[in-house]
Amino acid sequence: MNISLVGLLxxxxxxxxxxxxxxxxxxxxxxxxxxxxxxxxxxxxLIRLSEIDIGLSSxxxxxxxxxxxxxxxxxxxxxxxxxxxxxxxxxxxxxRYIRINGNIESIGGFDTTISFFGRLVEESKDAAIYxxxxxxxxxxxxxxxxxxxxxxxxxxxxxxxxxxxxxEEILTIHIFPGSSTQGVASSYIESGETRxxxxxxxxxxxxxxxxxxxxxxxxxxxxxxxxxxxSHSILSGKENYGDRHNPFTPDGRISTVEILPGESISxxxxxxxxxxLYDPTYPxxxxxxxxxxxxxxxxxxxxxxxxxx
Length: 309
Fold this sequence. Notes:
This protein is mostly beta strands and 309 residues long. It has helices at residues 3-18, 166-169; strands at residues 32-42, 47-62, 65-77, 80-92, 97-106, 111-123, 127-137, 142-156, 171-175, 213-216, 220-226, 235-239, 248-255, 264-269, 273-278, 286-291, 298-300. 6% of the residues lie in helices and 49% in strands.
């Protein structure tokens, strides 16, 4: 066994103690979540980088456990993508633990099984952090994995029991000024600020849209308003992790014309499911939209592309 692998395994042993924590995650039934993280997949002979990025919806609670279904997403081994095939999971002990089991599928069509177990490490008002261990079993290898992953919960913004006007049911998302420039400190928005983002300050640019992760009922219309000084357009597609030259592959479900500066465009999401939206000219500008039936309209709290109110 090589030195780097020995060092990594030592890190796993140390990290296993870090994963034991008395924190409590607020998970609930009939809700939508995003689980995003990265780490390593290890055999006796090699180490591969791995990433998890999945969307899931919870079901009815039974005791201290809640079953969930994984709706969309991918897992990677280095630059090899595996899409969701048939995965199920469960929140255990009121969110202290997460179990995920089932099948994922490679681009070549080969089935791969996973068995992950996550322990809650820490939480904030916006997300909970889990440490995951487990296995990825391909046709020719079995990998032990260790991830650190963030679980972001979608919370209600509109109560369906309250009568609202047609205008109130239409969501509006603003494209911020300067969004066509990535990583410019002078256009950064601190969470909670309401001033023009071009007057903000900070080491990194994080904000491109007024909201970047939303859950809606099928049939909802979203109005995109371009407050930038250049044109933008919105497509939906599959994200190609690690491919800088072709970060997305369009899927044909959503495709807009150019949205000129000061203009707006309406998009109606008729089909249920996850939509990964992006601007093909400026692919760092991206939104995840989940058309999720049987729940009220939802919207995530503060995220990396989001301006607080």
